């Protein structure tokens, strides 16, 4: 199991590095491809760029939660997501509503919440715990990584499909209700 988790960490570190580069370098183009209205392209670009800067934490948060679920512990990831949600909501209130930081404030709140959500399980794994997992060195074993990717491919296709549908839905909401409509939808989906 350690080889699978180690391989997953390596794969997702590589994916994070690629996403970091793409999101930082092409944030404006991404905003345009997402069909952000012309008045929101700048703010969307800032949001994408800041989230790109924190993509390692977003990926780590999701990977560590998946590891817990894979070990049969669905309660801990629920606690992590609850803590992250509270931090994100408080951050949005402080940075967006309070300090009027617009999209930058929302992105900083998101990255902060995901970072805390990633640090909590790292602390758990670094101490004596109830699982057989401990932090240690990882090895790159291509055969294990290929088996893991093959095994998880159906889940990947499902998640990619859901994400694509969500993007397309947001694009339609943007056309019909504008930025406020997408914001309202995002709030409803987050709660």
Describe the model.
This protein is mostly helical and 191 residues long. It has helices spanning 2-25, 27-33, 41-53, 55-70, 75-98, 102-126, 142-190. Helix 1 (2-25) runs antiparallel to helix 3 (41-53) and helix 1 (2-25) runs antiparallel to helix 4 (55-70). The two termini are 34 Å apart. The mean pLDDT is 87.
Regions with little confidence, pLDDT below 50 for 5+ residues: none
Kindly provide the radius of gyration, computed on alpha-carbon positions and rounded to a whole number of angstroms: 18 Å
Number of helices: 7
Q: What characterizes the major β-sheet?
A: none
The amount of beta strand, in percent, is under 5%
SSE order, one letter for each helix or strand: HHHHHHH
Q: How does the overall form come out from the CA principal axes?
A: globular
Q: What does the average pLDDT come to?
A: 87
Secondary structure: helix percent: over 70%
Cα end-to-end separation? 34 Å
Question: What structural category characterises the helix and strand content?
Answer: mainly alpha
């Amino acid at each position: 199991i350690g080889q699978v988790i180690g391989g997953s960490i390596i794969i997702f570190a590589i994916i994070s590095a690629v996403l970091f580069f793409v999101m930082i370098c092409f944030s404006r183009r991404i905003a345009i491809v997402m069909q952000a209205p012309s008045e929101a392209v700048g703010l969307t670009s800032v949001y994408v760029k800041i989230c790109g800067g924190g993509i390692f934490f977003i990926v780590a948060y999701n990977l560590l939660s998946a590891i817990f679920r894979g070990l049969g512990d669905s309660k801990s990831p629920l606690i992590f997501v609850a803590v992250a949600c509270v931090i994100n909501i408080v951050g949005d209130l402080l940075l967006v509503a309070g300090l009027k930081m617009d999209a930058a404030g929302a992105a900083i709140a998101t990255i902060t919440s995901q970072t805390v959500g990633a640090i909590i399980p790292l602390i758990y794994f670094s101490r004596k715990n109830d699982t057989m997992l401990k932090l240690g060195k990882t090895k790159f074993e291509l055969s294990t990584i290929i088996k893991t990717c093959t095994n998880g491919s159906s889940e990947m296709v499902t998640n990619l499909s859901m994400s694509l549908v969500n993007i397309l839905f947001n694009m339609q909401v943007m056309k019909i209700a504008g930025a406020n409509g997408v914001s309202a939808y995002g709030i409803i989906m987050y709660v």
